[in-house]
Here is the input.
Amino acid sequence: MKNLKTCSYAVLIAALSAPPALAQTCKNARADMAGLYTLRGVMETGSQILLNANGSFRYMLAYGAVDEEAEGCWQRVNDMVILTPTKMLVSKGGNKFERLSLPVVEGGKLTRQFGTRMGIYERR
Here is the structure.
C-alpha cells in the first residue's frame, strides 16, 4: 500500500505540471467539478483523475502489472463526466479508451464499473 501512495503523489506532481499546449486545446470546464479524485471501493486497484478547470485532465490506474495513464480533455454533460484522451499509455493487459463516461452521483462523486464491482472516485 505504501508504494501505491508514493505512486499517487508522483502522479499528482506530474498532473499539476500538465503541458500548456494541452490546456490550449481544451474548452474551459465546470470549475465546481475540478479537483483530484481518488478511487475507492475496488480492491488492489489504485486510480486517480485530476480534472482541471481549463478542461484538461490526467488519469492513472494501477492494478497488479497493469498500468494506464492518459491525458486529454474533459467535459460534464448532464450527469456524466466524459474523458476524451489525446494521449494514452497502456501496459500489456491494459485497456485503451477513446472516451470514458463516468456518472456523477450525490456529492459530486464519480462512479465506474470494474467487472462486478462499482468504484467511486471521491474528491480530496
